[in-house]
């Protein structure tokens, strides 16, 4: 357990509204990730961060943006939520560079109506 | 881009049976992860391996780098082992994330 929390844990929103999900870690890990999990697809990488203010796109980044202003916080924003973004979102962290264990947050269930 | 395939997708077995879940990947990797996701949704890392074999309790993970294949074995399976088991490949360096298989849904019946 790397002390990863996600907020909110559940959210229902309407199409077209902006939504921000927060990931907070207490372990001072350098690398942070946002994944989404959908039936039939498994987990897919949305965005990742390799340091404060250093972020990059993953496999399914369209419609999402991220920010990391502090080591402990990684925010995921859905700029204008769509029904296709209904999913379970997981944050993960990793301490070092060479493929070491990733620690996952508890997930956020997002429903876009 | 690495493609990660798992089999079987679903597996139902009786308590006490020996369980094997397979994972294959298309591109050479630095490390292969096995993860467990319980019905409540939380994801826990079971193993990370880059060669050979690792054992933790009743769980054993093996990897064959040449064949690009890994297996997760559960000995003396128990209903509490019921979960989704996910393999994930780490093929890059630096900040790269994992590439996941779609998971194997395992049910162990008493």
Would you write up a description of this structure?
The complex is a heterodimer of chains A (113) and B (110). Chain A is mainly β and 113 residues long. Chain A has strands at 4-7, 10-13, 19-25, 31-38, 42-51, 54-57, 64-70, 73-78, 87-94, 102-104, 108-112. In chain A, strands 2, 4, 5, 6, 9, 10 and 11 form a 7-stranded mixed sheet that branches. In chain A, strands 1-3-8-7 form a 4-stranded antiparallel sheet, with no helix packed on it. Chain A is globular and about 40 Å long. Chain B has no helices and 11 strands. Classes of the chains: A mainly beta (113), B mainly beta (110).
* Protein chains sharing the most extensive interface: A-B, 27 and 25 residues
The fraction of residues assigned to DSSP E strands of chain A is over 45%
Helix-strand pattern of chain B, N to C? EEEEEEEEEEE
Helix tally of chain A? Answer: 0
How widely separated are the two ends of chain B?
40 Å
Sketch the major β-sheet of chain B.
6 strands, mixed
Average residue pLDDT of chain A:
92
Instruction: Return residue spans of chain A where pLDDT drops below 50 for at least 5 consecutive residues.
Output: none
Oligomeric category: heterodimer
Report how far apart the termini of chain A are.
33 Å
How many strands appear in the DSSP assignment of chain B? 11
| Class per helix and strand makeup of chain A | mainly beta
Short structural summary:
The complex is a heterodimer of chains A (113) and B (110). With 113 residues, chain A is mainly β.
What brief labels describe this structure?
heterodimer; A: 113 residues; mainly beta; seven-stranded mixed sheet; four-stranded antiparallel sheet; B: six-stranded mixed sheet; 57% strand; globular
